[in-house]
Amino acid sequence: MSRKKKKKTSKLKVWLGIIVILLLAVLGLDNRGVFTEIRNREQISRAISTIVNKDSNFKIFYFDVGQADCSLIMNNDKTMLIDAGNEEDGPLIVECLKGLGIEKIDYLIGTHAHEDHIGGLDDVISEFSIGTIYMPKVQTNTKNFEDVLNAIENKNLTIEMPVIGESFNLDDCNCTIVSANNETEDLNLSSIVLRLTYGTQSFLFMGDAEIENEEAISWDKTNVIKIGHHGSDTSTSEEFLAQIQAELAIISVGEENDYGHPNDEVLNRLKQKNVNIFRTDMDGTIILTCDGNTNTMQKLELCLDGN
Fold this sequence. Notes:
This protein has about 300 residues and is α/β, with parallel strands linked by helices. It has one domain: Ribonuclease Z/Hydroxyacylglutathione hydrolase-like (Metallo-beta-lactamase, Chain A, 4-Layer Sandwich), CATH 3.60.15. Helix content is about 30%, strand content about 25%. Strands 6-5-4-3-2-1-14-15 form an 8-stranded mixed sheet, covered by helices on one side. The model is unreliable at about 1-40 (pLDDT under 50).
């Protein structure tokens, strides 16, 4: 889907200022001007790294990047980034990753070629050591997509095409490509869908996959799902939810977005299935930590949207 900017309220900015001031007090940093506008990216990345539970090896960050998508998986010293928000989110995402002590992205996934998913990938590619890059075969002629290809070429990297059933490991977390369509011309339908398993827990990342993708295969029961297409009614069918039997759902969506996401019918389907819902427009950046048997959620009213 195309990009729409999200509007943050002054109340949220003040709340963010309070968080950062408290953290800066602990870190011994100057807090002048924080209430006016949080411009110091290093402060935000330090805030995230300070709040994170250091005892858990496996973490997922569902970053609040407005009407866009960006998720980071960390498992011991291995990392995977799935999408990177809009183009203007790239520099801030880079600083947040650096604030978490990341030097290498072992797996970089561009689920599909819409700007709200790959917008910041060129910044990430330019700033970090990159292992394997997965992107669908289908391309687009946008400048943003060309920027991503140029960043890949400049570092002599290559793109791996997704193959359904292909698996790789992020330390002791198994990652499997469960859906991908390299033949379609529809960018949403080309979305790479990943299923992760860590201990007894499982996680789905749906990109902008739609009901057509959901109906194409059978789905295993999964504990946590990053809802497809920002909660649009083109995704997350009742039949699909009945198969995965999710306990937790995360919706990456912009505040007061023009699309009406998440759709009320989708929310009702989730509620009827007793799924616990987290939304980046309401909860900010969401951090999941897992010990292999249970998942713990932290909600940070912290927006990384570069708008």
